[in-house]
Amino acid sequence: MPVFSLDPAQKSWCDELRAVAADRLRPLAEKGEPGHVNRPLVAALGELGLLDRMLTAGALDLCLLRESLAHGCTEAETALALQGLGSYPVVQAGTDEQRDRWLPEVAAGRAVAAFALSEPGAGSDAAALALDAVPGGSDGPGWLLTGEKRWISNAPEADFYTVFARTTPGAGARGVTAFLVPADRPGLTGAPIEMLSPHPIGALAFDSVRVSAADVLGEVDQGFRVAMNTLNLFRPSVGAFAVGMAGAALEATLAHTAERTAFGGPLKDLQSVAHQVAEMATRTEAARLLVYAAAEAYDSGAPDVPRRSAMAKLFATETAQYVVDAAVQLHGARALQRGHLLEHLYREVRAPRIYEGATEVQRTIIAKELYG
Hints:
Blueprint: H1 8-31, H2 39-47, H3 50-56, H4 59-72, H5 74-93, H6 96-108, E1 113-116, E2 132-135, E3 142-153, E4 160-166, E5 176-182, E6 188-192, E7 201-212, E8 216-217, H7 223-259, E9 261-262, E10 265-266, H8 271-300, H9 305-331, H10 341-348, H11 359-371
């Protein structure tokens, strides 16, 4: 498929997703409590088959799914994406037993997953993580996890966590192991963190939490690869989330500037306004094409996936920030009123420039790939 266009079936699917997001999922989102997992919303995503589709989707399908849901209901998009981020390490590196235990529950919307990588001292520099996995255990080979995770989406309300811990001190990225840790494991506690964006984020404390060989995802000391493989898939789709928000802001701006009158006519007849809207539309389309190109590269196994993923995530999230901000400016004070679509998007659009690798990290990746 050419990366610059969608076929009729894909366009129809995207239209259906937008309608479902607006008509069925948005009412559930509005009933949720900010900062907490909205389990009825997650269950609805399961009932609609969207979580199952997400678990088996290629990168392009994942991007179309996230962009379309974001256009109609950002909370539904985020709930779906967090399920994917937390469970994809199990998809790619889990044992048959781990997959059979958790993936059907995730797909059905009955189990909430979380991706536990970031720490107080290891955010952008993920290889610097310090959660200790100390050898020990009375029931055979195992480890005791001690330390803290922070800025973890769905924490502390998830049912299981994919946790990245240091099994070999001083080895950098080569000494990290991924573990599947159920939330009811003794010694694991958590607390919510109140954030600007409305989705749940929290901190986790590990007080000698016991894990065994049966909890390892992939191989010992190879967990950083599990994390990076997950992020390489999800980074373009973070861009898709951003494109969905930019598209919603642009659509609202087109309607507002066509209807709102000032200085004797509609706003759209003012050249300064029309040119601003044209710039918003152009940047949004450019971001969309970068996202689709990165997704196509991932699905085709191209060698330049890290660079393309980083470019897509970088440009799309920065573009969405620009488009939403410009939309607020063109709407005026009404866009800042609590409950307005743009007030909601203004709070939502800031975080994607930071999580899953901040803008500065993406530029570093791109430069490294170019000079490499």
